[in-house]
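Hi R.,

As promised on Friday, here is the backbone we talked about, encoded as structure tokens. Could you run it through your design pipeline when you get a chance and send me back a sequence?
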């Protein structure tokens, strides 16, 4: 439902802003602003995107939690897409997302909400899924194995695929 409302509301907001600002500034200045924000978005996306990739690389290299850098990278990509989309509202949101303090604040606000959904989904989902351990599950047998090839068997024991050995 929210996605439908966004797809309906955002174009209406953009059209209203184009009409208002176009009437206030004129056609050519309005179009120049749209083109300049697209160019600025491209430059900022490259710079901030590289910085986000570097933060992700460092987090993985030092064994830290990569969810923050991954979320920041996703928000940078979203910001770049919004800045490349013609419109003043999308430009304002995209420009705001280009600033690291805004991204951190959004991530700090979203993280507990997402974690509570992940945890609740894990409690109602399949008990043997990757989010749960097998400890205490009577249907799971824990063990170790070792692959044994035909040359690894002692010569006095028959192999299961060839039957008894003739002496």
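Update: got your reply. Pasting your designed sequence below so it's all in one thread:
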């Amino acid at each position: 439902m929210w996605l439908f409302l966004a797809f309906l509301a955002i174009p209406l907001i953009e059209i209203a802003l184009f009409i208002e600002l176009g009437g206030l500034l004129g056609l050519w200045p309005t179009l120049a602003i749209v083109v300049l924000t697209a160019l600025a978005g491209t430059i900022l996306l490259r710079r901030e995107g590289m910085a986000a990739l570097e933060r992700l690389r460092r987090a993985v290299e030092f064994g830290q939690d990569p969810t923050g850098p991954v979320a920041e990278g996703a928000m940078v990509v979203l910001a770049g897409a919004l800045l490349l989309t013609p419109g003043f509202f999308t430009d304002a949101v995209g420009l705001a997302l280009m600033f690291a303090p805004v991204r951190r604040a959004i991530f700090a606000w979203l993280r507990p909400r997402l974690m509570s959904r992940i945890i609740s989904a894990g409690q109602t989902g399949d008990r043997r899924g990757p989010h749960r351990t097998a400890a205490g599950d009577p249907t799971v047998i824990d063990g170790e194995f070792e692959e044994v090839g035909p040359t690894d068997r002692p010569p006095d024991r028959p192999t299961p695929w060839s039957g008894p050995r003739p002496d």
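One thing I noticed while checking it: Residues 17-123 form one domain.

Thanks again,
M.
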